[in-house]
Amino acid sequence: MRSLRLFAQLMLAIWCVACASVAGATAIEKILMPGEVSKAHAKYETECVKCHDRSHRERQSTLCLDCHKDIASDLRTKRGFHGNSVKAGTECIACHNEHKGRAADIVRFDRESFEHAVSGYKLEGRHQTVACASCHVTGKKFREAATTCFGCHEKQDVHQGKLGKDCAQCHNQVSFKKTDFDHSKTHFPLKDAHARAGCSDCHRDPSYKNTPMECVACHARDDSHKGGRGPQCGSCHNTDKWKTAFYDHEKIAHFALNGAHAKVACDACHRSGDTKAKIPDQCAGCHAANDRHGGRFGDDCKQCHSEEKWKDARYDHEKQGHWALKGKHAKVDCQACHTTPITSGKLPTDCAGCHKADDVHHGSMGTQCGSCHVESGWREKVRFDHDMTRFPLVGLHASVGCEECHATRAYRNTARDCISCHKSDDVHKGNLGKACATCHNPNGWKFWQFDHGKATHFALEGAHAKITCETCHVKPPDEVKLPKDCGDCHARDDVHHGGFGRDCARCHTSISWKGAGVRR
Hints:
- The chain is mainly α.
- The chain has helices spanning 2-23, 25-32, 60-67, 69-77, 80-85, 149-153, 193-196, 199-202, 215-219, 249-253, 283-287, 317-321, 351-355, 418-422, 452-456, 469-472, 486-490.
């Protein structure tokens, strides 16, 4: 009996082996498999030996690296993410688990917490703020991203590759515009103004080759002599400023360039361009067109002016003209008062004599302008005391200009009530009357105080406290007197149509019509 049982078991085993041969190894592998593999390894799901060595379990990582040759290379050469972060002897399964299903994430890569430095490429400068997709193209592995400047920035290379691919020779990772190129190592060290110029100012060709080094090659358009002095600009000029010349004008031309003359361009006087042509050496000879006096003070400009500035006149008006120039009088042009030659007549010395046309009061305030105004300016330090009038200036009135209230400079017959000036500012549109001071004060429209309960014997409570004045006051108070009982105002809101009388407060409150109930 026992032999028969053993024989049956043996036949069953032979039958299972036969079935397996017929159905294929796939069914057995799936029976033994703990779960589906990820989508990336799905095609190897029936070939366990691709990843598992039943005779030597520790060889599993070796089998992984047989397929993932790029990672195996990183581990050997100690480069990339795996080469820098994975310790020797660490099994792949320590980080990447399979048989968790098709949708399982076996990479477990978190972009937010990833430290880019372990990849072998530390993010510095502007690279720290750019999005991952700017360097890592969709559809390609992260390891395939370029690690050289030129690899990423080839399209931004204004030199078009003519200066090579090592961008770091000149540029840094903070900004392309900030360069570290040492121009002193070239045949043209940058000094003075050249050191402040932009690269493209001289290098029109982005290859930076065959750039001329002669002054005239770059500055021909700046040559005020138009080539009349030859191409050797350095014989007179330096690299700091064109206007700083070495030409000894006093020794060679017998005319010392002092004051403002030392600062003007050569062609300002030598207009023909021929420096050998004779030009006048007297003030009037060159500056007749600049004489703002129109010859009213003669030709001897040096009596008042110097070579430093035309406006710095030495004429003592108080001593020589017997009239001290103070305030704005000291700043006006001479011809503003001297409209005719000085030999023609004597000028008046009183305010009205000169400023009659400027009198905005048209004589209504008299001719003694000095009683209110000063010489530093018509509008400065006006001494008029408005408090001595029938309308003292308090609050904001003290800071507004005169013309805000006084339509004419006669300053007469100006209205003194608020509404005359502030009608356009009256948000109540006249519905609260003209006595603005009842609520407002001169310190500002928003600084108002009005106790509705005390002043009208109708306290604003509940919803009444939230509505605007114009909701009830639709007409000025001198035209209509508002009622104080609910029915007069809310008759159209009475859903009872008067059926419960006019004493709404029996059921309702001033907070809301809703939630009514008999209260008394």
